[in-house]
Amino acid sequence: MEPLLTRLKNFNKGLLGDKVQLKYEAMAENAFRFFRGTCHLFYEDLAAAAPLPLSPLAWICGDLHIENFGSYKGDNTLVYFDLNDFDEALLAPASYETVRTVTSIFIAFDNLGFEDEKAFNMAQLFLRTYSATLAKGKAVSIDPRTAKGIVCDFLRAASRSTYKDLLKKRTVGKRKSIRLSMEDERHFKLNKPLRKELNAHIRDWIKTSSDGPYHYEVIGSVFRLAGTGSIGLKRYLFLLKSTNTKNHFLLIDMKQARASSAQPYVPVQQLHWDAEAQRVISVQQRMQNVPAALLSTTEFQGDSYIIQELQPVKDSINFKLLKDYRDMYQVIDDMAALTASAQLRSGGMQGSGTIDELMAFGTDQGWQEAVIRYAQLYALTVNNYYREFLKDYKNGKYGTS
């Protein structure tokens, strides 16, 4: 296998060079952030390892880890806690989703300074709840009415967030002179020709797309930086102003979609999608209990893009702030139930295992030990990768992408 330096540089070669440097900087923060930024390594290594026990095919988000669950507003206006990142989504063995999530538990808990035993207990809890939910064959959902403990507090706090709060963080000025803030470290100025083309494109999207918000005009746009794995993709933020409601604004995110980094290493025939963005939102809509509000696709200058509203309620639980082990227990338990529920919801769809097959997999306890064993070993591999990466990064070997 090629050296780590070569593998990382080759994967990031097609991304925006100056932004890739910011991605490497983010990945150098800690081993967990490195893991978030190297989904392709995970699947490449998984394909080369001894195979996991057989599991039914399922629609998976592909990059599931404990920070890819969060709050969002559904198109029914309710706030939910659910899986919330589907850039790497595809059809794969159901166990692939669990082994990546369990690996993330081992890496994150080590990074947070928790004992190995507690991480192991959490990994067991995740697989136990995941299996039990599958075995019941009935998907569950979590909103402020059904949430418990820290997740309930998290959702209630998210529900109180307003667009006024979001605008305060992202914009400067008042009323007619409002504009996107360039003091935000996640915002970058666009060159004038590109900004002009982008604004014209979104104006056309508003007029012609059935998913677009009516009666809005574009009044600003910037390049937007977000996430870890997605840093380096083309991503833009637009400020829209209502043309018939005074002082009403929307923030729209437009993110480039590329092929799933897992696809080359998953030995499963994939569906043909018209565009990568269509793959992302189609799988998202079938796996989430309620689709997110204002979710759409577009094509700009030959690239496929996902369009979605930037929501004041969209957030992820910060595990660094969770000091109580019981709080973590409730969060991991909920995440496991949601993972199984997403697979049940999409069961039997276009190649996925049927509900009965997923239920039988949940009843079978024979595969869980192999998943935990692989996740433990791979967490050690990631830590070794991270140390090697950090050494090379500090020595300037990632100075050019």
Task: Describe the fold and architecture.
By secondary structure, the chain is of the alpha+beta class. It has 2 domains: 234 residues, no CATH class; 147 residues, no CATH class. It is 45% helix and 16% strand. The strands form 4 sheets. It has a 6-stranded antiparallel β-sheet with strand order 7-8-9-10-12-11. A 3-stranded antiparallel β-sheet has the order 3-2-13. A two-stranded antiparallel sheet has the order 1-4. The longest helix has 27 residues. It is globular. It starts with a helix and ends in a 7-residue tail after the last helix. This is DUF2252 domain-containing protein. It holds the Pfam family DUF2252. InterPro entries: DUF2252.
Our Rg estimate from Cα atoms comes to 21 Å
Task: Give the strand content.
Answer: 15-25%
- Give the termini separation: 20 Å
What's the mean pLDDT score? 94
What count of domains describes the coordinates?
2
What is the number of helices?
Answer: 13
Order of helices and strands: HHHHEEEEHHHHEEEHEEEHEEEHHH
Spatially, the strands of the biggest sheet line up as 7-8-9-10-12-11
Helical content, roughly? 40-55%
Protein name: DUF2252 domain-containing protein
InterPro entries: DUF2252
Organism: Mucilaginibacter agri
What's this entry about, in short?
The protein is built from 13 helices and 13 strands.
Secondary structure topology:
Blueprint (H helix, E strand, L loop, with lengths): L3 H9 L4 H11 L3 H6 L2 H10 L8 E4 L8 E5 L5 E5 L6 E4 H18 L4 H21 L12 H12 L2 H8 E2 L6 E2 L6 E2 L3 H17 L7 E9 L10 E8 L6 E8 L19 H12 L7 E6 L2 E7 L5 E2 L8 H21 L9 H9 L4 H27 L7
Antiparallel strand pairs: 1-4, 2-3, 2-13, 5-6, 7-8, 8-9, 9-10, 10-12, 11-12
